[in-house]
Amino acid sequence: KITQTITNTKIVTKLNLIKVEKNNEKNLLKNAEFALYTANDNYTYEESNRVTGNIKTDSNGRATVNGLVPGKYVLKETKAPEGYSLSANVWQVLVRDNQSVEVTLNGVPVEKSDDGAFVIENIKLYSLPSTGGSGILLVYDRRHGTYVCSRMDLI
Predict the structure, then answer these.
(1) Which residues of 38-47 are buried (b: 16+ CB within 10 A; e: fewer)?
(2) Which of 17, 33, 63, 154 to pair with 129, CA 20 to 30 A apart?
(3) Bridge partners, residue 68, by sequence
(4) pLDDT digit string (tens) for 78-89?
(5) 62-68 and 118-122 as β-strands: parallel, antiparallel, unpaired?
């Protein structure tokens, strides 16, 4: 009788993210929240296939997802940092058998930071000044002529 022991080792890796302001990567964004879903071959997914929804950037704009097994995933932002718009993007995440991770957006590889974290950008919300600044007035469907625009203070 021959006995042989075979040990299987589960292949797992992690996904490192860093959240930054678009066009100002030195501004690291805290409190962005993400969800990760398992995906089909063409990166479609069902909301019910959520792997985790507990991905939140820290005060350094960083978040890590541990324990990822090889496969395809999608990453969605579920809550934007305060003062920033929620991204409608869905990032494609590929975890290979050799534990390498690739993140793309619409087929384009996502940039990595110097330490290998994938850089996810957010756009700052723009707000018009409420007092003391110039504003914008848009007028549509008016006949040619002279119009007067004056400031009216709210009481």
Answers:
(1) bbeeebebee
(2) 33
(3) 13
(4) 999 999 999 999
(5) unpaired
Is 100's pLDDT higher than 50?
Answer: yes
77's tokens: 């932002």
Instruction: Return the closest-CA partner of residue 92 out of 34, 20, 27, 36.
Output: 36
Residue 126 vs residue 41, higher pLDDT: 41
Amino acid at 46: E
16, 118 in Cβ contact below 8 A?
A: yes
Calculated CA dihedral for residues 8, 9, 11, 12, nearest 10 degrees: 140
Chain position carrying tokens 């991204």: 87
Strand stretches in the chain, DSSP E: 13-21, 24-28, 33-38, 50-56, 62-68, 71-79, 90-95, 101-105, 108-109, 118-122
- Alpha carbons 121 and 145: distance in angstroms, whole number: 45
Residue 8 has pLDDT above 90, yes or no: no
Structure tokens at 104: 């793309």
112-149 burial, b at 16+ Cβ within 10 Å, e below that, comes to eeeeebbebbbebeeeeeeeeeeeeeeeeeeeeeeeee
